[in-house]
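Below is a filled-in request sheet from our internal design queue. Each sheet records the structural input a requester submitted and the sequence that came back. We keep these sheets so that new team members can see what a complete request looks like end to end.

REQUESTER: design group, bay 2
PRIORITY: normal
MODE: inverse folding
CHAIN LENGTH: 254
BACKBONE (tokenized):
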């Protein structure tokens, strides 16, 4: 099963940049989207169906043009879960899950803390999300949480760890949370296959950052340890340029 995660930074804008043609060529079984920034009524769902994804699940934020996640599937899941049941999380449309036999896939968009007023919100989200997931994996041991975590885990995951040491996304407290989250039962699938530096999934629009590969790796496919034994491939797809992020891919044995 091939699964892609992609923060599209506005699904309508991505479609105007050739996203659907790219999606057909990439041909994942499931694609998880973050930051769709649209209500379902604003999305060309018929075009997405024609691209091969008749099963579409959208969880937009209540605030128009903001946040929101989606999952597009070739085959129908047996169950779909919208949100976490935690009101402030669900108001912003940050979690959506589909369940198949032997595999559950979550699309996550963790808040950014770049605005100082939102940093406390991000930490609250991280703490509550850890509790939610710790309970969830007791019932769903084969869980893939893919998406934009808005955190670089280690120095290898960011182009300039020294200058960014006090920037949200690479704060010691954020990195510690992600490290603890992984140690509580999750594996960074990309690092199972690639230990090298200079692999990123997000670049600022400023200072020609993408062309100079001055980026951050903040998008992850985190898999539970039992599921990690079935992972056969995990990589980043930087050639796709419909967003300030690029897609990430994982393949899992059925």
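RETURNED SEQUENCE:
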């Amino acid at each position: 099963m091939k699964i892609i995660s992609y923060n599209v930074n506005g699904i309508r804008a991505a479609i105007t940049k050739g996203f659907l043609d790219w999606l057909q060529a990439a041909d994942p079984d499931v694609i998880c989207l973050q930051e769709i920034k649209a209500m379902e009524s604003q999305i060309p769902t018929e075009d997405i169906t024609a691209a091969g994804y008749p099963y579409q699940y959208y969880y937009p934020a209540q605030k128009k043009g903001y946040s929101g996640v989606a999952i597009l599937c070739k085959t129908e899941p047996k169950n779909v879960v919208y949100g976490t049941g935690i009101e402030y999380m669900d108001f912003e449309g940050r979690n959506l899950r589909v369940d198949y036999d032997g595999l559950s896939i979550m699309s996550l968009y963790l808040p950014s803390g770049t605005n100082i007023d939102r940093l406390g919100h991000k930490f609250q989200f991280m703490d509550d999300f850890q509790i939610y997931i710790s309970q969830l994996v007791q019932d769903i041991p084969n869980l893939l949480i893919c998406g934009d975590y808005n955190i670089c885990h280690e120095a290898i995951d960011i182009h300039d760890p020294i200058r960014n040491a006090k920037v949200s996304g690479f704060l010691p407290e954020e990195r510690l949370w992600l490290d603890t989250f992984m140690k509580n039962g999750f594996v960074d699938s990309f690092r199972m296959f690639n230990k090298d530096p200079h692999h990123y999934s997000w670049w600022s629009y400023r200072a020609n950052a993408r062309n100079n590969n001055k980026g951050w790796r903040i998008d992850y496919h985190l898999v539970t340890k039992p599921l990690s034994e079935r992972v056969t491939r995990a990589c980043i797809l930087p050639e796709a340029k419909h967003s300030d992020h690029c897609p990430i891919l994982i393949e899992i044995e059925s």
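SHEET NOTES:
- The radius of gyration is 17 Å.
- Residues 130 and 229 are 23 Å apart (CA to CA).
FILED BY: M.R.
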